[in-house]
Amino acid sequence: MKKTWWKEAVVYQIYTRSFKDTSGDGIGDLNGVTEKLNYLQSLGVDILWLCPMYKSPNVDNGYDVSDYREIMAEMGTMQDFDNMLAEIHSRGMKLILDLVLNHTSDQHPWFHESKSSKDNPKRDWYIWRDKPTNWESIFGGPAWTFDPKTNQYYLHLYTKNQVDLNWENPEVRRELYDMIIWWIEKGVDGFRVDAINHLKKDLTDMPNPEGKNYVPAWRKMTNVEGIQDFLKELRDETFAKYDVVTVGEANSIRAHELAEWISEDEGKFNMIFSLEAHENWNQDLDADHNVMTIKKILDRWQRSAQGIAWNSLYLENHDRPRTVSTWGDDRNYWRESATALACMYFFMQGTPFIYQGQEIGMTNVPFDDIKKYRDIETKNFYRYKRMQGVPHEELMEAIKKVSRDNARTPMQWHDGTNAGFTVGKPWIDLNPNYNWLNVEAQTVDDRSILSFYKKMIVLRKSRECLLYGSTKLAETDCPDVYAYIREYENTRILVVSHLDSDGCHWSLREKGQLLLANYTEFMEQKLQPYEARVYLLE
Ligand code: GLC
Hints:
Elements: E1 11-14, H1 30-35, H2 37-43, E2 47-50, E3 54-55, E4 67-71, H3 78-90, E5 94-99, E6 103-105, H4 109-116, E7 128-129, E8 135-136, E9 144-147, E10 152-155, E11 162-164, H5 170-186, E12 190-193, E13 215-216, H6 218-221, H7 227-237, E14 245-249, H8 258-262, E15 271-273, H9 276-280, H10 287-305, E16 312-314, H11 323-326, H12 334-346, E17 351-355, H13 376-387, H14 392-402, H15 439-443, H16 449-462, H17 464-468, E18 470-473, E19 481-488, E20 491-498, E21 504-505, E22 512-517, E23 526-527, E24 532-537
Parallel strand pairs: 1-2, 1-17, 2-5, 5-12, 8-13, 12-14, 14-15, 16-17
Antiparallel strand pairs: 3-4, 6-11, 7-10, 9-10, 18-19, 19-20, 20-24, 21-23, 22-24
The protein binds alpha-D-glucopyranose.
């Protein structure tokens, strides 16, 4: 496969709102990112992905843009942005932005115009109908909202404040392409493209045998026939003209479909994020079952991409709970399980992404009170389910496990006031465990999760085999051991991660030199709870 900078890079995702506040308003900002660049450089990451920092009323924390060419007031100014970008580049690092192209905020001037009258020139920039379809929105409730002024309904796949743009209209597409080019010309190095598989819709009713008010309509709004034409045009008119990296958020794509999305000949993006492994980890089942399932899924992605496409590798992001609390064991094996999971995903073929706080093993947050949650998806879920009569306790139990706020509590820098995130009142409560779980404590500890991440990054960069080698699952007797071999020219590297809290029989079947481990003492023919090792095979 072609060698390129973004294949050799490690990406760090910043949820800006929760990263570092310098203004004292309790909301993370761009100057906060600039302030922490030395930290990110010492971690060894190369590309920073910034969650949306555009002007926004923040109904969905920036995924509701009201001006694509302005910075959200809480996060700073365009000058702060330019300064941050220059500081990133002067360190040899790169910046990718989050592009929200499926919808805008209802506060965007385009929507103000569109809803002003039926014959406004921008009426057709959004999707208006006399009669709505029977779809449910992804965040609960109906997907259409009635506008009394013009007597029509508009479509919104997410909240009613995130209005779907009409991609069928060429003027809309042109305007978005111009905006993308404007950012590239400003110097950004690529994009994570939000909710990309919803651009095309099949605006017809879902079957509704149970006579529900609204019906989940995933297949009418996701990967609808014709979407590739939009994506191809988007690529050709923007990204393809520059040396930028793109990664599309394309949840429901499966490995056998990856060619038209990301192959080097016909792909529309360099990489996509698939959620398949995350969706199939069932927290009610045991580790054996889950590890076998994700092995099957991730192996399929590795094999399908072999020689034709590049994977994105990730454990966490701002929409998922913390993996040390879900896939791992944050009570009994916090350090071991965070590092074993890290070792498992980090050395496969693809570009690894680290979500802020993952590198120190941040955990889910135990908010007991629904009022502490800030996420609109969580709040809507609670509201609609309560309306349907689901008991409060049952909902709180589910929310604690899956709420997106689990990953959105402020970054834990040290054990002082508000973990060093802000001197003001944080927009969301901190996880109280910052008194012992923080960057400062882990920086000075050679056995910390943070130190392990640093070692992984150094190792990945020092071996071409870990970048460009093929990947093959390795046989093991234990179902909860995830082992694979990377092979390149004459080098073979074995990665073994035991993803359970029991002990299991395992021995190295060939001669090998240990390159990395998350334990310092080893047992004969045995892997300890959440033990992980990397060997250079002879
Ligand atoms: C993506 C984002 C998520 C957001 C949604 C709507 O899934 O990752 O945070 O709520 O799109 O833009």
